[in-house]
Amino acid sequence: MRKKAPIYFIIICLILPVSTAIGQDDLNAIQTVVPFLTIAPDSRAGGMGDVGVATSPDIYSMHWNPAKYAFIDGEGGIGIAYSPWLRTLVPDINIAYLGGYYRIDDKQVLSTSLLYSSLGDIPFTDNFGNEQLIFRANEFSIDAGYSRKLTDVLSGSIAFRFIYSNLTGGYYDGITETKPGISFASDISFFYIKEISISGKDSELSFGTNISNIGSKMSYTDSRDPDFIPMNLRIGTGTAFYLDEYNKIALFIDLNKLLVPTPPIRDINTGEIIKGKDPNVGVPIAIFQSFADAPGGLTEELHEITYSFGAEYIYNNQFAIRGGYFHEHASKGNRKYFTAGAGLMMNVFSLDVSYLMPLIHNHPLARTLRFSLSFEFNALRNIKSAS
After folding, report:
1. pTM of the model
2. DSSP sequence for 331-366
3. Domain 6-386 class, CATH top level
4. Structural domain spans, the chain
């Protein structure tokens, strides 16, 4: 029997979309399981080049920086987001997100979310190409977070995550028995926001950081070593300018680095490490080692940082236009794309859409759309009270 194992999905979901136009000898991208955890689920961030750690709080803050919830204006709300993913490569992959928050008091907020990824129907065949099984592979994570104001301008949060990845449906080829991958992880985040004045105009300065997916390794079989999940450090800053009572412009930048070992360079014959460090280490060691284990030294470490730039214009708190750019070094994946988006904010709900435009021709991420819909509970109560 021959099966299309989890490596198939890792290649499809991680390597193929990002390695176009560079040679295999130049590519030393960090690989993890469950890469869907790093994909921007919502349209607002998706329209601004995947920035989100220091943007103004919204319902989708659970993914980017749960500490932002402590400064959100509402008493509670829910959000739903959907994106067809890699449609130019595979027709039936999609990502869906459901999140929400509830304010306990002026300082404390609870939040939760569900991120679901469907990888489509995967056929399993024998050595002669005869179809044995068709399985719809899927992955999801469930989050729960607690956010609290530490001062008038600073908040902190801790979140916990359950991760489930079923890529084979337990398919057994007579040699290797597979199973769903399971992991538990946590996030630690902080958010700072302060009102300032720039050229006599009211403005806001924000900073954010989120160390996410700090958790156990994951394996799909009992016969091989488990793999790292995408532990990640995200830091960012932003500034919002109030031009007048109707017009607002905000600029943001995010920096990301995976806290996962970089693949070392090995001797072709012996397999011994020539440059770099042993990646088969525990999670705590891997986090600290990830800052100084690249075979290319400091230069390669800097190449592992991705950059996101985003801008947002809001008119009368009702209509938004967004744009952004995402950059990843060629040797680490070569994802480079512009994004654009728009949003409509009504009394009860908000509707957002974004569009992704890669710089590389025939890129698998081309024409990626995201849709988001959110509801605020206090707005619903105000309407009922008025009626």
Report:
1. 0.89
2. GGT--EEEEEEEEEE-SSEEEEEEEEEESSTT-TTT
3. mainly beta
4. 6-386
